[in-house]
Amino acid sequence: MKLWVAREGHDTEVEFEARGDRLWLTIEGRRLEADCRRLWDGEVYSVLIEGRSHEVRVSSPGGRLEVTLDGATIPVEVRHPLEKLLQATGPAARASGRETVVAPMPGLVVALRVRPGDVVAAGQPVVVVEAMKMQNELATRGGGVVTDVLVEERTPVSAGQALVRIAQAGS
C-alpha cells in the first residue's frame, strides 16, 4: 500500500507491506525491513531496523497524529494517494459548496460523530476509522451541514471510499 506522509512541511511517498510483526517500507527509493512489536500500552512500539532498536510512540492528541522516535516528537499527517489528489482539488470542491470526507486507507469504521442535519465546524471530527491498529479521527476541512452519512459503525471501508458528505451553509 502507498501512502503520503507529510512531516515538517515535506511530503514523502511511503510504500509499506506488513505481515505479522514484519514490516517492509520503501521511502524515497530506500527499502527498509523492520520488526515491530506493540508494547503493553498500545501506543508504544519496539521497532528493530537494520540491527538497531528504536522506541516509537504513536499518539493523536487533539486529532493530530504525532510520532515520537527516540525521544523526538514529530507531527505527522498520513494521506492515501487518493486523498492527496482530493486535497489538491480541494479549492474547486469547496467552491462548489460541497465536501466529501473519504477513508484515507482501508479500515473499519469504529465511531460516527455526526448525523445528517448536524452543523459542523471546520476541523471538527466526523468519523473514526481504525486502520493498522490505529484509530484515525477524520475531520471536515470547511464545515457546514452534514447531508449524508454513507457508512455505519463496524463497517469495513476501502481507501478513498466516501464516508460523509457536507454542504456549506446556504448551499
From TrEMBL:
One Pfam match: Biotin_lipoyl
UniProt KW Zinc keyword: no
SUPFAM superfamilies in alphabetical order: Single hybrid motif (SSF51230)
Record-linked CDD domains: biotinyl_domain
Keywords: Biotin
Alphabetized InterPro entries for the sequence: Biotin_Carboxyl_Carrier/Decarb (IPR050709), Biotin_lipoyl (IPR000089), Single_hybrid_motif (IPR011053)
Name recorded for this polypeptide: Biotin/lipoyl-binding protein
Organism: Eiseniibacteriota bacterium
